[in-house]
Amino acid sequence: MVKRYAVILAAGQGTRMKSKLYKVLHPVCGKPMVQHVVDQVSQLRLEKLITVVGFGAEQVKAQIGDKSEFALQEEQLGTAHAVMQAAPYLQDKEGLTLVVCGDTPLITAETMKALLEHHLATCAKATILTAIAENPTGYGRIIRNNNGHVEKIVEHKDATEEERAIKEVNTGTYCFDNQSLFEALTKVSNDNAQKEYYLTDVIEILKAKGEIVSAYQAPSFEETIGVNDRVALSQAEKMMRERINRQHMINGVTIIDPEHTYISPEAEIGRDTVIYPGTVIEGKTVIGEECIIGPHSEIKNCSIGNGTTIRHSVAHDSEIGHNVTIGPFAHIRPSSKIDDEVRIGNFVEIKKSTFGKGSKASHLSYIGDAEVGADVNLGCGSITVNYDGKHKYLTKIEDGAFIGCNANLIAPVTIGKGAYVAAGSTITDDVPGNALSIARARQVNKENYVDRLNAKKKS
Ligand code: UD1
Ligand code: CA
User: Fold this and answer.
1) 370 CA to middle of ligand 1, Å?
2) Which of 22, 38, 41, 79 to mutate for ligand 1's pocket (most ligand atoms within 8 Å of CB)?
3) Average pLDDT over residues 172-180
4) Model's pTM, two decimal places?
5) How far apart are CA 402 and CA 157, in angstroms?
6) pLDDT value at position 147?
7) 234 in a domain, yes or no?
8) Which residues act catalytically here (predicted)?
9) Looking at residue 184, which CATH number applies to its domain?
């Protein structure tokens, strides 16, 4: 098999984004653009992947990690100059090299594979991935001769009125014969509107040498969109969202309103789960089968079992079991572990706590740094008092304990198995198993007090 290499261009600042964040790090559906590209390109069985970095090099490298090798482009003199930086890794190699821009987050491995096949089938030295754009403004235009063969690519800024009317654009993805590419790159000049070394000039250079240059049209323009500003970013976001949601629906997930459902590319969702509008599922979240999620819920990096319902709630970095009910208006904060059949009701905040099977906190509670056993009932308004202003302390509530309404459990403290805590108690000491603890002032009724008070007022 012909050896395959790839170069991803990711050194530009992205001036048109008007951002402190380097362009290729802007997220699309929660994942940086360049990471989308790397993840797709990595599916192509490559000998080597080189990412050209420059602006924000350290951040871009940290994002991509060991999936790629890196070449540094110290000055951003154009896309041809960027590819040149990969010469020390590639220039002598025999094989073909795919070049992809780091700002085309929707490009798929499938289309790149089709491009490679077309390239090999046509015995070309260069094959351009083109697309038909409704509005081609900003893109390089594909100039074809009378026979329909590609002659050159003209950048928007350098194009004549007539050329600007052409709707076939350069997507910024190409396949080259590796050695022809690096040889042609040495001949590129910066004699153009932007005073940049354009990679697109390689096409004309190869043509002049009598080499075959071919073009492969992408099945849709959408997939090849280049993100240069925030308008394109929002378009990419919408298209990626549609792609992700569609795949989940095909897999058997019901999404009531896909236009208003935001799912990360890393999320996994089981069959017959129903996602209601306004739901945001971020990071590496795994949701089981037959769950009901939303409306209006935010779930990040959680694993959720089967048959669980989460309505109008927020859950981050936590494990949630099967047949759990959460919300409306609950907040599950990081490092919580909620076992099967637990019920977390409205206005309940859980932080770094475990809940055993079948336990309940149905209304208005704060449970932080707690180990709650199985079948525990936390009454309305139960609070773990876990913080003294300096340190956090643990509350243990053992299996079957019953905590009355409005109890404060001042940590560190343990409530033993099956114990009862009376409503309104402020518990400062451990409660033994099966005990009843009442920690509140006794009630005093002053008979006829109001009559005496009124009599006093009159006299
Ligand atoms: C480029 C193409 C244009 C094509 C469009 C597709 C050129 C000259 N033009 O234009 O024909 O229609 O992509 O989206 O290639 N980069 C570097 N170093 C540089 C300059 C750019 O690494 O010195 C990187 C950028 O980070 C970016 C990519 O190359 O990821 C493309 O650069 P950009 O400036 O966005 O090119 P366009 O003007 O969009
Ligand atoms: Ca671009």
Assistant:
1) 53
2) 79
3) 98
4) 0.94
5) 73
6) 85
7) no
8) 363 (proton acceptor)
9) 3.90.550.10
Q: Over the stretch 233-278, which tens digit does the pLDDT of each residue have? A: 999 999 999 999 999 999 999 999 999 999 999 999 999 999 999 9
Task: Report percent pLDDT > 70 for the chain.
Answer: 100
Q: Are residues 204 and 298 in the same domain?
A: no
Residues 91 and 195 in one domain: yes
CA dihedral 66, 67, 72, 75 (to 10 degrees): -130
Q: Are residues 57 and 187 in the same domain?
A: yes
Over residues 333-383, the pLDDT tens digits come to 999 999 999 999 999 999 999 999 999 999 999 999 999 999 999 999 999
246 assigned to some structural domain: no
What is the domain count for the chain? 3
Residues 288 and 369 occupy one common structural domain: no
The distance of Cα 254 from the centroid of its chain, to the nearest Å, equals: 20
* C-alpha separations of 273 from 13, 287, 307, 315, 325 in Å: 41, 8, 8, 17, 14
**Residue whose CB lies within 8 A of the most ligand 1 atoms, among 101, 139, 227, for a mutation test:** 101
Rounded to the nearest whole angstrom, what is the distance from the C-alpha of residue 199 to the centroid of ligand 1?
9
Phi/psi at 71 (5° precision): -120, 140
The answer as to whether 347 is a domain residue is no
In a domain, 348, yes or no: no
Q: Which of 224, 241, 272 finishes a domain?
A: 224
Mean pLDDT of 280-304: 98
Ligand that lies nearest to the alpha carbon of residue 195, given by its number in the listed order? 1
Atom of ligand 1 nearest to the CA of 13: 26
260 is annotated as an active-site residue: no
Pair 75, 211 in one domain: yes
Say what the alpha-carbon torsion angle 232, 238, 241, 245 is, to the nearest 10 degrees. -150
CA angle 61/65/67 to nearest 5° reads: 115
- Asked if residue 191 belongs to a known ligand binding site, the reply is no
Which of 118, 156, 296, 363 is catalytic? The answer is 363
- 177 and 271 inside one domain: no
